[in-house]
Amino acid sequence: MNAHAAPEAEAVPPAGRAAPRGAMPPAKTPRRVGSIAALGMLIALVVTAVGVLAVRDALVYGGLLGGTPFLHDLAKRLQGLRPEAWVVVAGAVLALVGLALLFRALRPSSPKVTALQAASGVFLRPRDVSRLVESAAQGVDGVLGAHASSTPRRVTVSVRSTGDAGVADHVREVVAARLAPLKAPPAVRVRTERSKR
Amino acid sequence: MTRGTVAFDRVMMAVVGVVLLALGVLGILWWAGRLGTIPQQVDLSGIRWWPQQAWWPWALGAGGVVVALLGLRWLLSHLPRGAVSHLSLPGSDARGRLLAAAGPVLDAAAHALAETPGVRSARGRIEHDRGRVVTRIDATIERSADLALVASAADAVTADLQSALERQDLTSRVQLRTAGSDRPQPRVY
């Protein structure tokens, strides 16, 4: 043991377990940036396309390429345009799309995963939490089948049961115990459905 | 994809959002006749002389090339970045660099984690994430795995990695996946 390997102040190990010597600090929690990346790529694609069309028109104007410039067609359509009903509809649609883009751009991304109590970053996806919960619920007496859906904050378990009293409470206890090692255990909701015999 | 790319995406989304919003609102105000001195008919005759100028194709072409290249550069920044193949270790100086091949080191760590009861398999690699070097291990666990046991095994494995690589700037991410179905376990009667 050297002093070098002492854990840093912020990497406090969770209570109830021995502190591992010099465990690596966790990486940043993965976040949902998929939609931002997708929209960013879409805008980048549009920008690239506009550039390519401008080059194409430049070649047409320069006489190096046959055809009519797109800008010419565009100008012809715009010339003499008056505000009509469709301008209102288009304006409303544009404004709504713009507002949605603005909100998405400014909203912080939510975490994509749930963290386990660990000094190093150990993560489970919601889908994995669902599978763990399903297996745990299926092991409860009186449960014939279970299906779970999860978000980082909430787990909903639907169980088909034999109809015994207290199955839901028992499932809730078992699932909560199963998820106890999570850093922020999600709220557990149990729906029961009596199996038709 | 880097932190910079995501930030740039956000900024550009906000800019495009504001522009679309402004266009939409202006369009509605135009229709309502609330734009004051703005004429109620589009008239482009003021710029009709542009395409007749000798500089027009050059300006349009140059602008187009710049815009297309910027767009392409932005598009390509979304490509997934490859894993880090080598890590430089303490002891590197002007006489030489001390490198560790990331693959075998992470494979060994992943293999150690896979020895834990309840862990079916594991693979490791080193990558960059938002400005940090991350040792990433992807592990598949059984549905019946003891999560606390897996977590403490992950702590032990990353601690070993830390002391093996002697780099204080590493961070760790152990991404667990739950197996679709439990592998048949040995039975005890």
Overall description:
The complex is a heterodimer of chains A (197) and B (189). Chain A is 43% helix and 15% strand. By secondary structure, chain A is of the alpha+beta class. In chain A, the strands form 2 sheets. Chain A has a 3-stranded mixed sheet with strand order 3-4-5. In chain A, β4, α5 and β5 (187-194) form a beta-alpha-beta unit. In chain A, α4 packs across α5 (167-178). The longest helix of chain A has 28 residues, at 34-61. Chain A is elongated and about 80 Å long. Chain A starts with 33 loop residues before the first helix and ends with a strand. With 189 residues, chain B is of the alpha+beta class. Among the domains of chain B are: 1-35 and 76-80; 98-178, 2-Layer Sandwich (Alpha-Beta Plaits), CATH 3.30.70. In chain B, the strands form 2 sheets. A 3-stranded mixed sheet of chain B has the order 3-4-5. In chain B, strands 1-2 form a two-stranded antiparallel sheet. In chain B, α3 runs antiparallel to α4. Chain B is elongated, with a radius of gyration of 29 Å. The model of chain B has no long low-confidence stretch (mean pLDDT 87). The interface between A and B is large, with 90 and 86 residues.
Query: Given this structure, which CATH class of the largest domain in chain A is correct?
Result: Alpha Beta
Q: Give start-end ranges of low-pLDDT stretches of chain B.
A: none
Widest β-sheet, arrangement of strands of chain B: 3-4-5
Quaternary organisation: heterodimer
How many E strands of chain B?
A: 5
Q: Major sheet of chain A: size, sense and barrel closure?
A: 3 strands, mixed
Structural class call of chain B reads alpha+beta
Helical amount of chain B:
40-55%
CATH classification class of one domain in chain B: Alpha Beta
- The coarse silhouette of chain A is elongated
Helix content of chain A: 40-55%
Could you tell me the CATH topology label of the largest domain in chain A.
Alpha-Beta Plaits
Number of helices of chain B: 4
| Largest two-chain interface | A-B, 90 and 86 residues
Mean pLDDT of chain B: 87
- Kindly report how far apart the N and C termini of chain B lie: 52 Å
Overall SS class of chain A: alpha+beta
Q: Give the overall silhouette of chain B.
A: elongated
